[in-house]
Write a structure and sequence with these properties.
This protein is mainly alpha-helical. It is built from 18 helices and no strands.
Length: about 325
């Protein structure tokens, strides 16, 4: 029988290595069974279309990124130029590198003091938002009390009220009503037309409460039930169980709050009447109004204003994206 099978084998396959014979026979069997021989090689033209789509996508992404990055690069480059170099036409790199712009910004135009004021205000507002928004978000997500949903909707409704509409009542409260109330309890001559007023207005935001509540809703209740079996109350459960798991949401609240308070202009312009308490955005407005054509100094001040937020976002980018993504999904 073996001799008959060998004799029936085509002459060209007798001189072919066994591995190639098996491959050719499998292809023939596949063709006989109805499988197209080109399936193993892929769809004709598919790889070329995928390559073209990938190149087109990256080209569009690179173009959009360049549109956003080139102005920033030009600002950084201008901050290292001389004034004469800034009027000689557009170029990405300066011809004569100098740090005079940064030196004058900090030592002549008091932006070092403005940076410290912005850091104090933004740091205090960020810390109060992290604490109050996390504990408030936990209460709205887990505690059951009468009027919880109505109160939460009222909190979200404050997002639709612009600061310009609240200007008169809040200013009256900070200037007249609040100092009068504090005077009755022994705090005489209290004033809030300073950094304290800006911090007090922004102790906690509705957006931070919303982010924290949505994130706490995604945490399984089994963890809280286990904590209750161990005798933990609401606050201990919040501190020992919920808060350690809320790192991504806390990072998102930290970045958004710090950026908003660092770049805030409206309330500092209304309340910070002393020049020594100006923030960086307020200082930039006054500087641009008075010294319109000092481009190296203006760009140096702008770079100083951008750097803290940029560094914070780079450090916590992964947690920020995870926190925003998780907060948008209700558990």
């Amino acid at each position: 029988m073996a001799s008959e099978g060998l004799s029936s084998t085509p002459e060209e396959l007798r001189s072919t290595p066994p591995a190639l014979v098996v491959g050719e026979l499998s292809l023939e069997g596949g063709a006989a069974g109805g499988t197209p021989p080109t399936a193993a090689a892929g769809i004709p033209g598919r790889e070329r279309a995928d390559l073209f789509r990938t190149i087109l996508t990256y080209t569009v992404m690179f173009t959009v990124a360049a549109l956003f990055f080139i102005p920033f690069l030009w600002s950084v480059s201008t901050s290292f130029r001389t004034i004469a170099d800034t009027v000689q036409g557009f170029s990405l790199l300066p011809k004569h590198w100098t740090t005079v712009g940064y030196h004058e910004v900090f030592y002549k135009y008091h932006f070092g003091r403005y940076t410290m004021n912005s850091a104090i205000i933004a740091g205090a507002i960020t810390l109060t938002n992290l604490f109050l928004a996390s504990i408030g978000g936990y209460a709205f997500a887990r505690l059951k009390f009468p009027g919880r949903e109505v109160l939460f909707m009222l909190v979200l409704g404050t997002l639709m009220i612009p600061d310009q509409l609240r200007l008169v009542p809040i200013y009256q409260m900070l200037v007249n009503m609040l100092p009068s109330w504090l005077g009755h309890v022994g705090w005489q001559n209290a004033t809030f037309t300073n950094r304290n007023g800006v911090i007090l207005i922004n102790l906690v935001s509705a957006a931070s409460l919303f982010l924290m509540r949505q994130f706490f809703l995604t945490i399984p209740r089994d963890l809280e039930e286990a904590a209750k079996l161990d005798g933990a109350g609401y606050f201990k459960t919040y501190r020992r169980v919920m808060l350690p798991l809320a790192g991504p949401a806390l990072a998102a609240v930290c970045i958004l709050t710090f950026q908003g308070s660092w770049n805030g202009l409206f309330w500092p312009a209304v309340l910070l009447q002393d020049e020594a308490q100006r923030t960086i955005p307020l200082g930039l407005v006054y500087f641009q109004t008075i010294y319109t054509t000092l481009w190296p100094q203006l760009m140096a001040a702008s770079v100083v204003a951008i750097l803290p937020v940029l560094v914070l976002f780079v450090l916590f980018q992964r947690y920020f994206v995870a926190g925003v993504a998780a907060s948008g999904v209700k558990g």
